[in-house]
Amino acid sequence: MPAMTNIGLLTGDGRSLLTLLPIKSPQTRAGYSVPAGSACLVLMFAGAVTRVPVSDGLEETQLFEAPRLVWIPDDEAFDLTVEAGSRGSIMLISRQTLFRALPASVLADQMRIILKQSLSLVLGSNDQIVRLVDEIAAEKQTAGPGSVEALEHYIGLTLLHLWRLLGANMISHQRSPEGLAERFLILAGAHKHQHWTVEDYASKLGTRRDRLRVAVSRATGLSPQGYLHREIMRDACELLANTGLPVSQIAFRLGYVDPAYFNRFFTRQSGQSPGKYRHVLRHRRNQGDDSYAAWP
Question: pTM of the prediction?
């Protein structure tokens, strides 16, 4: 076993919580210790890398041979052993940076849960993630004005592509309980405006309603119905805040045939009508306060 180099995150100004380590054909095996709380992206163009758990659990050592893309979520600490002659890169992303880089939209919950899964795929020569990591390396090298914001942008795009890769086969994989929640979130994102019942989702996922409730509650802290209502409310508030659409058109866009029913739903969820929400929001914006826009 080679000597281990600690590649923990460098805090810098407290915002640039990202470490990018190039692997440039070491003459001997090289070892790196990855701390807990750091999501890890490994791109291997040549050679191989081995993930070695450092805890006393039942997790096994994993060997990844190039060309390979590996995503390891921010869970336990582990070691990486890189074989001599390997080429690639290792990128660590802190939990704080990952949270900041997620989109400020309804996708955030889906991405946060699905990105907790590991991923190992053959790395294509034209992979978009490779280009994004190259952009991150260049931005860290120049460190010009706005560099932190640019890095967060590139990290966000990287996470989006990883989320797509992780979710590509999620629905076809019958995993539980976390996998069930992930598949529900994917379906909810696609069908929430069709107003499926919880029974519809359970049937589509091949499970019972009570089992779906347990899985979704464990993952999100909400019941399936509560999660669906929250996502519809977030979409409604987004449209009310950032478009000039009449409330009736917003209702139709959200799948409500009867705008009056949408009005009752919104009022029950927020304590005020859609028109009142928009009026108060505009008043506060005129006073320079945008904090009221988000819901919940």
Answer: 0.62
